[in-house]
Amino acid sequence: MAGSGSEGGAGDGAGSAGGGAGGAWGAGLGAPPQPSASADAQRETRQPSFRNPVGRTRFGKSRMAFGRNLQTELEPRLAMRFTILTSLLLPAWGLLFGCSADKSQVALTATVQAPELEVQTSSVGADATGQFSLVMALGEYASDATEVKLGSFSIQRDEKDLLSPLGLSGAMFPVSLDVGKRVTLPLTFIESTKPSTGDALCQAPVQIRGTLMDSLSNDHPTVAVSGTFMPSCP
């Protein structure tokens, strides 16, 4: 019984000591220590950083700088090459465009205008007398002047010769033609033929068709043709 009493006293003493200690915190030391704001800030600053490594950042900047320098160096060179290429292609393109779109700008062209034909037929023969104007022009973009030679001319119907060749007079050939120039030459002819040919000429409208050769085209034939017209057959 004595031991139980002493144990109880000891327990009470421990409780008193604990109460004293609690009282000591309350009286002398105040509230229990709390985490400070500076500690929270330190933990925040210790969070892992997601910034790019210094080496990678420098590499990216140097690559951008290299790209800008390369573009600065290439732009004048590309502009110069484009200028040279344009200066070389424009004349060729102009010639190609002229040939494909309008031959009259770069080469010789010719037409037969104001054609006339009179046919007199008898039992023994027929006489065909006629005239027309030969209009020739050399394009304003031709590379040089040219000399034009007279080829053969005929009277046709449906692209079939009825009277060929025609003996033309009234102008002297070859004819010199400067770049961008145009000339009109009056030409005449008188032909004797068979009565059947005279009758064929008078049956329906006809046209005059001929060829010219010029030095600029290396004597490549240039066709000159009239519109259809009705011969005079008294």
Description:
It contains 4 helices and 9 strands, in the order αααβββββββαββ. Residues 1-30 and 97-101 have low confidence and may be disordered. The chain has 2 domains: 54-101; 105-225, Immunoglobulin-like (Sandwich), CATH 2.60.40. The strands form 2 sheets. Strands 3, 4, 6, 8 and 9 form a 5-stranded antiparallel β-sheet that branches. Strands 1-2-7-5 form a 4-stranded antiparallel β-sheet. The chain is 39% helix and 31% strand. The protein has helices spanning 2-29, 37-45, 54-101, 195-201; strands at 108-121, 126-138, 146-157, 160-163, 168-169, 175-177, 182-193, 207-214, 222-225. The chain is α+β, with helices and mostly antiparallel strands.
In short:
This protein is α+β, with helices and mostly antiparallel strands. It has helices spanning 2-29, 37-45, 54-101, 195-201; strands at residues 108-121, 126-138, 146-157, 160-163, 168-169, 175-177, 182-193, 207-214, 222-225. The chain has 2 domains: 54-101; 105-225, Immunoglobulin-like.
What is the mean predicted local confidence, pLDDT?
77
CATH architecture of the largest domain: Sandwich
Unreliable parts:
1-30, 97-101
Report how far the terminal alpha carbons are from each other.
177 Å
Radius of gyration: 56 Å
**DSSP helical segment count:** 4
Give me the secondary-structure category: alpha+beta
CATH classification, class level of the largest domain: Mainly Beta
CATH topology of the largest domain: Immunoglobulin-like
Number of domains: 2
Helix content: 25-40%
Beta percentage is: 25-35%
Quick one: how many beta strands?
9
